[in-house]
């Protein structure tokens, strides 16, 4: 018949459980389970990586928005300059036409 011996230890941060099973014939199976800071440290590292990636993605989105705003502003400025130039050409053409037309 199989005998089983269970040993549990805890130091406040790490808990370890060892199960030894003697199945006869000199064969012993040992099963170890533990929990502790390893899982917590991995969780904190994953959380930090997610926060860093989110920060860089938000910065990239902000930079794209600023670049789009700058291009839009420049295009508006060029359009305003072209409209002013067109008005100037129109006024000059009107004055030139008045100067060429003979007075009756």
Structure description:
This protein is of the alpha+beta class and 104 residues long. The chain has a domain at 48-75. The chain is 62% helix and 26% strand. It is built from 1 helix and 3 strands, in the order βββα. The protein has one helix spanning 37-100; strands at 3-10, 15-24, 27-35. The protein has a 3-stranded antiparallel β-sheet. It is rod-shaped, with a radius of gyration of 41 Å. The termini are far apart.
In short:
62% of the residues lie in helices and 26% in strands. With 104 residues, it is α+β, with helices and mostly antiparallel strands.
Q: What percentage of the residues does DSSP assign to strands (E)?
A: 25-35%
Mind telling me the C-alpha Rg? 41 Å
Q: Say how many strands there are.
A: 3
Task: Please give the share of residues in helix.
Answer: 55-70%
H-E order? EEEH
Low-confidence stretches: none
Structural category is alpha+beta
Strand order of the largest sheet: 1-2-3
Largest sheet: 3 strands, antiparallel
N- and C-termini, Cα separation: 133 Å
**Number of distinct helices:** 1
Q: Mean of residue pLDDT?
A: 80
Task: Summarize the topology.
Layout: E1 3-10, E2 15-24, E3 27-35, H1 37-100
List the main descriptive attributes of the protein structure presented here.
three-stranded antiparallel beta sheet, alpha+beta, 104 residues, single chain, 62% helix, rod-shaped, 26% strand
């Amino acid at each position: 018949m199989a005998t089983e011996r269970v040993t549990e230890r805890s130091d406040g941060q790490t808990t370890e459980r060892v199960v030894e099973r003697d199945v006869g014939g000199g064969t012993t199976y040992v099963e170890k389970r533990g929990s502790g800071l390893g899982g917590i440290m991995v969780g904190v590292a994953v959380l930090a990586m997610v926060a860093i990636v989110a920060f860089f993605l938000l910065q990239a989105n902000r930079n794209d928005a600023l670049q789009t705003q700058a291009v839009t502003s420049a295009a508006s400025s060029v359009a305003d300059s072209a409209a002013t130039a067109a008005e100037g050409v129109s006024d000059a053409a009107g004055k030139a036409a008045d100067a060429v037309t003979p007075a009756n």
